[in-house]
């Protein structure tokens, strides 16, 4: 919702800046509409076209990298859960309890909205997996080695879980967004300063404002991969639950 409001605000600012300067141009004095003034305005417009483009490109790249990194870490997390279950199976009937709790944990995570949210229920279930695993005791050296491997995989899964939870709370500094919006607003204001007042020009500027606002919305949405229309799929965890049930 916040990303949508920011995108709408940016659209209004860009369109309004263009329409205002387009409307007041004809009312300015002759010395404000001379060739020297128009040349200076075009030079400033060129500067404001370059800088926002660079900043927007950097922010889009950062959002895309966050999205890809969280997706990769969620696949790694799901793989760790499958490997943890596989490492407990050779331990025999005594490992049935931690395996059941592991399945209960994965099923609870899939119920969490969003799945990156560290709810008390899911985190308690994950802790119970570790507690029940630590309570196991074996005399056979081979099973002790498998038990140690399982405990190592459990710690790795917990670490990976918190890694993608923390990464999913992506954000952009407010001053950076404000600077970008300020630059874009001034850019549209300077572009509209001497633009012809006709339907084609106005429609072009409105479409450009809508596309820029949409790009910023997608950038903000991609920085939070578990909310909005560009959400990451939960299929890796669904497959992990299916493998554990087998």
Task: Give the secondary structure arrangement, pairings included.
Blueprint: H1 2-25, H2 35-88, H3 96-111, H4 120-134, H5 141-167, H6 174-191, H7 199-222, H8 235-245
Helix pairs in contact: 1-6, 1-7, 2-5, 2-6, 2-7, 2-8, 3-4, 3-8, 4-5
Q: Which characteristics define this entry?
A:
single chain, 246 residues, mainly alpha, 8 helices
What does this protein structure show overall?
By secondary structure, the chain is mainly α. It has eight helices and no strands. It is rod-shaped, with a radius of gyration of 27 Å. The mean pLDDT is 84.
How many helices? The count is 8
Determine the N-to-C terminus distance: 40 Å
Q: What would you call the structural class?
A: mainly alpha
Shape: rod-shaped
| SSE string | HHHHHHHH
The major pleated sheet works out as: none
Could you name the ranges where pLDDT drops below 50 across 5 or more consecutive residues?
none
What number is the mean pLDDT? 84
Helix content: over 70%
Question: What radius of gyration results from the CA coordinates?
Answer: 27 Å
Strand content: under 5%
Total strands = 0
């Amino acid at each position: 919702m916040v990303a949508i409001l920011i995108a709408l605000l940016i659209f209004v600012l860009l369109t309004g800046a263009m329409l205002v300067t387009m409307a007041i141009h004809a009312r300015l004095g002759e010395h404000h509409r001379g060739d020297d003034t128009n040349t200076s305005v075009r030079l400033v417009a060129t500067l404001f076209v370059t800088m926002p483009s660079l900043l927007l490109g950097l922010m889009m790249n950062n959002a895309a990298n966050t999205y890809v990194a969280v997706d990769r870490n969620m696949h790694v997390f799901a793989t760790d859960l499958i490997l943890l279950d596989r490492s407990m199976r050779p331990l025999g009937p005594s490992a049935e309890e931690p395996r059941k709790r592991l399945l209960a944990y994965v099923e609870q995570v899939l119920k969490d909205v969003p799945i990156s949210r560290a709810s008390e229920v899911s985190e308690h279930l994950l802790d119970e997996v570790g507690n029940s695993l630590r309570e196991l005791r074996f005399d056979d050296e081979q099973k002790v080695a498998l038990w140690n491997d399982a405990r190592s995989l459990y710690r790795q899964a917990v670490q990976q879980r918190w890694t993608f939870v923390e990464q999913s709370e992506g954000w952009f500094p407010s001053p950076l967004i404000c600077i970008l919006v300020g630059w874009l607003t001034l850019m549209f204001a300077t572009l509209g300063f001497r633009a012809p007042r006709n339907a084609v020009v106005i429609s072009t500027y409105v479409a450009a404002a809508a596309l820029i606002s949409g790009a910023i919305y997608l950038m903000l949405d991609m920085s939070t991969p578990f909310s909005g229309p560009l959400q990451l799929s939960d299929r890796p965890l669904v497959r992990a639950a299916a493998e554990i049930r087998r």
